[in-house]
Design brief:
Blueprint: H1 7-10, E1 27-28, H2 40-45, H3 48-52, H4 63-73, E2 80-83, H5 86-97, E3 102-105, H6 111-118, E4 123-126, E5 145-149, H7 161-169, E6 176-179, E7 200-205, E8 218-222, H8 224-235, H9 244-255, H10 257-280, E9 284-285, E10 292-296, H11 302-311, E11 314-315, E12 317-318, E13 328-331, H12 335-349
Parallel strand pairs: 1-11, 3-4, 3-5, 5-6, 6-7
Antiparallel strand pairs: 2-8, 7-8, 9-10, 10-13, 12-13
Helix pairs in contact: 4-9, 5-6, 5-8, 10-12
Bound molecules: 4'-deoxy-4'-aminopyridoxal-5'-phosphate.
Length: 350
């Protein structure tokens, strides 16, 4: 730290992303990426013509992307905001709507508490139930920014649409942000409720189901007024936040959306296959609606399981938080990757 850093940032504990090792090739089941490459339409769109165009700025209004998303989700283009990864929307939401404090679960996406600290927002951390479920009653009438990942990460458990609606309707004077990063793998999206509730902000990403983690592309669906607020912050910080190649990739991905829907189906099948095999080996496996499983075994500590798998070239995500340190989060990859993961797991347990 330099002696110039503002005092308000010196105590900030930054978010630590999952490992992205460059030392050797792992079977990478640690950051919930897709095992499938982007669609052919994306490979064609990000071509040398588009690279030549990099001398020009990207479209700050993201017109093409918004129109395509509006068509798919059957909302107006002005109900859509696009961002440089969905982390950027989370950042803006805490910046813009957290004045009266924020509430989120104790076990959830680790970035929420970092954003809250960054903006000096009081956080009400609401513990998950014993079985890691979210009790919706604990979020009624809080009158502050509420942030819920649905499905939650790293548990994979989801809340039903009617429970989400009760949370949104009981907090009409504050923004309720539903982070749907993993919703395409079996959860129920709530974006249809935006016409009914002007306080609902739904956040999605191209990083998981649409195989574009490295392109950095996220989007939000909300009332026109909330979208305008996000635009205001973007145009006050970084108007060209999405580069040309990512814009082209995003539009092209949406043109071949069926490919991604089919991939999600395969991931769900692989998830069920992996969950059953792990249960047969004695693991407890939390029911997941996401592209990962949250698992633990009585036969080996969470840390040992992670370390031994890493030695064998398979990377999963270990968390140090006391409540979940015996668990690991395993991203669902291709069938072949999951077979190798299971084979190495059996070797370790034996
Ligand atoms: N929300 C959740 C729950 C996540 O797990 C992630 C991925 N780390 C994100 C948001 C951010 O995704 P991205 O910035 O890649 O869109």
């Amino acid at each position: 730290m330099s002696r110039f850093l503002d005092e308000k940032f010196s105590a900030l504990k930054e978010y630590v992303p999952g490992e992205q090792p460059r030392d050797k090739k792992y079977i990478k089941l640690n950051t919930n990426e897709s095992p499938f490459p982007p669609s052919v339409s994306v490979l064609e769109a990000v071509n040398s013509e588009e690279v030549k165009n990099l001398r020009l700025y990207s479209d700050p209004s993201n017109k093409a992307l918004k129109e395509k998303l509006a068509e798919i989700y059957k909302v107006g283009p002005d109900n859509i905001y696009v961002s440089n990864g969905s982390d950027d929307i989370l950042n803006f939401a805490f910046m813009a709507f957290g004045d009266r404090g924020a509430a989120f679960p104790d076990i959830t996406y680790g970035f929420y508490k970092v954003f809250a600290k960054l903006y000096g927002i009081d956080s009400q951390i609401i513990p998950l139930e014993e079985d890691f479920a979210i009790d919706e009653n604990k979020y009624f009438g809080l009158d502050k920014l509420i942030v819920i990942a649905n499905p939650n990460a790293p548990t994979g458990l989801s809340l039903s649409l009617d429970k989400i609606e009760k949370i949104v309707s009981s907090n009409k004077n504050s923004v309720v942000l539903i982070d749907e990063a993993y919703v395409d793998f079996g959860g129920e999206s709530c974006y249809n409720l935006i016409d009914k509730y002007d306080n609902l902000l739904v956040v999605r990403t191209f990083s998981k189901s649409r195989s574009l983690a490295g392109a950095r592309l996220g989007f939000a669906i909300a009332s026109k007024e909330i979208i305008k607020d996000l635009e205001k912050l973007k145009f006050s910080t970084n108007p060209y936040d999405i580069n040309r190649l990512t814009q082209a990739a995003g539009v092209a991905a949406l043109e071949q959306d069926d490919y991604y829907t089919a991939n999600c189906k395969k991931i769900i099948e692989n998830r069920e296959f992996t969950a059953n095999a792990l249960k047969e080996m004695g693991f407890s496996v939390i029911d997941s609606d996401a592209n990962f499983l949250f698992v633990k075994s009585d036969k080996i500590s969470g840390l040992d399981f992670y370390l031994k798998l890493k030695e064998k070239g398979v990377l999963i995500r270990h968390f140090t938080d006391e409540r979940i340190c015996e668990y690991n989060r395993v991203t669902i990859g291709s069938r072949e990757e999951m077979e190798i993961f299971l084979e190495k797991t059996a070797e370790i347990l034996n």
